[in-house]
């Protein structure tokens, strides 16, 4: 499957650095040029997508809420 377009604007290309497997859900750490992005997805999805350490992926971030924290004084 190839995706030619998607409406998600926050996209981070990277490689999977680590997968922490769980019985139902797993954590996937993606190393990007901006830092590590962590996704929690079903363990079945990891198998279905054939994801493994070193796989090139795009982390898509879509949220209905963005929080802002002030740095310094």
UniProtKB/TrEMBL annotation:
Domain Mop: 5-70
Domain of life (superkingdom): Bacteria
Example GO BP: molybdate ion transport
PROSITE patterns according to UniProt: MOP
Pfam families, alphabetized: TOBE
Signal sequence annotation: none
Transmembrane portions of the chain: none
Keyword line: Molybdenum
Keyword match Cell membrane: no
InterPro entries for this protein: Mo/tungstate-bd_C_term_dom, Mop_domain, Transp-assoc_OB_typ1
NCBIfam families, A to Z: Mop
The protein's name in its UniProt record: Transporter
Protein's organism: Duganella radicis
């Amino acid at each position: 499957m190839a995706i030619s377009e998607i409406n998600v604007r926050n996209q981070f290309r990277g490689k999977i650095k680590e997968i922490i497997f769980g019985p139902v859900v797993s954590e996937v750490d993606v190393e990007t040029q901006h830092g590590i992005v962590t996704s929690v997805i079903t363990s079945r999805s990891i198998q279905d997508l054939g994801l493994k350490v070193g796989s090139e992926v795009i982390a898509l971030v879509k949220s209905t809420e963005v929080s802002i924290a002030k740095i310094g004084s």
